[in-house]
Every structure is written in C-alpha cells, then in structure tokens.
Write a structure and sequence with these properties.
With 359 residues, this protein is mainly α. The protein has 17 helices and 5 strands. Strands 1-2-5 form a 3-stranded mixed β-sheet, covered by helices on one side. The mean pLDDT is 93.
C-alpha cells in the first residue's frame, strides 16, 4: 500500500514519505484540512469582544515605559560608579531592543493602533531614527516577502540569516555581535535599489537619529565621542545573540516548500513556525508575537502582541482538534539542536517538503 492509499484510508490528516534524494513528500488529505476561515471567525470574535486596552493599550504602555527607560539610561551613564554605568548600558540596550524590535515590528504590521498613518509614523521613529535601519526595507523584506512566503524556498525561507562559511560556535555566539555594524550597512545596500525619495528619507532620518543619540551620550552622559561610540556598540549588542537565535530557531529546520509545492495558508503556517516558551526579558524586548506566540502572529499578523497572547489558547486548541502541527520547544533545546545539526541546518541546503494535497 503506497503513501497515497495510506493517507486516504488513515484517520490522520497527513502521511509523510521519505524519498531517496532527501525530499519529504507530505500527502495531506484536503477533505480533513480545516479552512482558515473557521479559525479566523473564532479569533475575530475574541478581538471584537476585547477592549481597546487589550487590543492596543497594554502594548502601548510597554512602549512608553521603554522610551522612558531609554531616556533615563543617558542619565545613568553619567554616573561615576562603574556599577551604575554598566546598569545604564544594560538598560539602554534592553529599551533599545524593545523599541526597535517589539515596537518596530508591531508598527510594521499596523498592529500598534488602528490608524495606518500613525503606524507609519511609529515605524519610521522606531526603525529609522532609533534603530538606524530602514522601515521601507524592513517592510519589503518582512511584510511583503517573509510573511506571505514563510518557509518557501528562495522567498521567505529565512535564508538571509544563514552563513554557511562560519563555524557553528562562532556563528551562534560571536558573529551576532557584529549586528550593530552590519544592520545599517544592510539597510544602505537594500535602500539604494529603491526610489530616490526613500533613499534620502532614510539617510536623513537614520543618521540624524544616530547623531542625536551620540549627542545625548556626550552632552547628557558626559562621555567623549569615542566612548559614546563604544556605548552605542555595546548597548545594541545586549540582546544581539538571542535576536539571531530567535530568528533561526522559529523557522529553519521546520518543513520548507518549493514555490511549486506550497500548501494552503493554514498548513504552511502551522508546519513552518515554532513557538518558544514565555520569557520575561524576551517577551518585553521582542514581543509575544516573536517569542511565545509566533504561530499566532503568522496566522494573524495584524494582531498586537497582547492579542496574540489572548487568542493563543483558541489557536492551539484548533490545531490540536484538527490534527494540525503546533510546534513548541524550549530555547535551550533549540540551541542544542542547532549546534548539533549546524551543518544540515545552516550549511547545507535545507531539505524540501513536497506538499501533495489529496482530494
């Protein structure tokens, strides 16, 4: 009995067959595959019954606290005490990540508020001015490519985070510290192929923002320009290692599809996305949608982080009831998995899953 027959006669949704050349063929019974609309109705009902505070307010408070902490850090850095100075660097780094990752990510998805114009404003503030990256480049890479083409080879497969020429331990724990230098360079490289208006806008916003931060470090904190540059590098490296880890843990190593064999959205997102456990620091600095509710975020990208957390039980229950995968793993387990399987995951081309939908 072949895999197709087994799927048709089995009570399970999917039967996988491993071919000699390493391709996994996933035979999925489309009659048993639930419609995305069924889950969407349940989630929409929760969103509509939620207050503004739940939909936007809780996350807005976190953003305000992060900005306040970001400003307060410049005063901590003025201290002559080495302990308070280190605390200032750490606080600046954590708040910088919260603004440039969590807040910027939500703004890019129009999840900070109901106004598109205000989301664009916040996106430029947190991404270009504070983060020295381009909101336009981020939108092209993340919103237009990664999300609709999650784990589709050559499109949204997270391959930009793969560095086959770098040894595993170096890649996992050293090269992320180059992020503060590489981030603006990547933005410049990508934005140069865009319209002149976007190029000029990014250069003005990003480098005026960087100049402002250096000014605050020299005038408010009383540092020399050399020390100010060192502090900028140091604070942006506070969470650089987990930032790279999270970006590879939650997609690479899960089923990846060719553009010719891509599954329906609900199957694509549930097979190709993984949730990490809740973590106070990473939840605050990266957001639930990136850490513990990444599956929910990929299914409903315009939900705020708090709403992703609120709908998570419904999404998980729906996946379990309909025999859909719901990937979860711990941070330490993923580190061990990537270190042990680095060649297969990050050096060699990722294995392809061929989706075959059966009527």
């Amino acid at each position: 009995m072949d895999a197709t027959q087994r799927t048709q006669e089995s009570s399970t949704l999917s039967v996988k067959k491993f071919e000699d050349h390493g391709v996994v063929v996933d035979y999925v019974d489309l009659k048993k595959l639930p419609q995305f609309g069924a889950l969407s109705e349940q989630v929409s009902a929760i969103v509509q019954s939620s207050s503004w505070w739940e939909r936007y307010g809780i996350d807005c408070c976190i953003h305000v606290l992060s900005f306040a902490g970001w400003v307060a850090s410049f005063f901590l850095l003025a201290s002559s005490s080495p302990y308070i100075f280190v605390l200032g660097v750490a606080t600046l780094g954590l708040c910088h990540s919260s603004l440039t990752v969590k807040a910027s990510h939500m703004a890019a998805h129009s999840a900070m508020c109901s106004s598109h114009a205000w989301n664009r404003f916040w996106s430029f503030l947190f991404t270009d001015i504070i983060g020295t990256f381009s909101a336009d480049v981020g939108y092209n890479i993340h919103i237009k490519c990664h999300h609709p083409h999650t784990n589709i080879i050559g499109l949204g497969d997270s391959s930009t985070f793969r560095a086959p020429f770098v040894p595993s331990m170096l890649y996992m724990f050293v090269t992320p510290l180059l992020m503060p230098i590489l981030t603006p360079l990547v933005a410049l490289r990508e934005i140069l192929s865009d319209s002149p208006v976007k190029i000029v806008r990014h250069l003005i916003l990003a480098y005026l923002g960087l100049a402002l931060q250096l000014y605050l470090l020299t005038s408010v904190s009383g540092l020399t320009l050399s020390w100010a540059l060192i502090v900028v590098l140091a604070n942006r490296n506070v969470l650089a290692i987990p930032y790279i880890h999270v970006n590879i843990f939650q997609h690479i190593g899960l089923p990846m599809y060719s553009p010719q064999h891509r599954p329906k959205k609900i199957y694509q997102m549930t097979t190709g996305v993984l949730n990490l456990p809740r973590n106070p620091i990473l939840d605050y600095c990266f957001g639930h949608g990136i850490i513990s509710c990444h599956t929910e975020h990929h299914l409903f990208p315009r939900l705020s982080d708090n709403m992703c957390l609120k709908v998570q039980p419904v999404v998980k229950k729906f996946c379990v009831e309909h025999d859909l995968p719901y990937h979860e793993d711990t941070y330490t387990s993923r580190v061990a998995h990537f270190v042990s399987n680095y060649k297969m995951l990050m050096v060699d081309a990722p294995p392809i899953t061929k989706f075959v939908g059966l009527q």
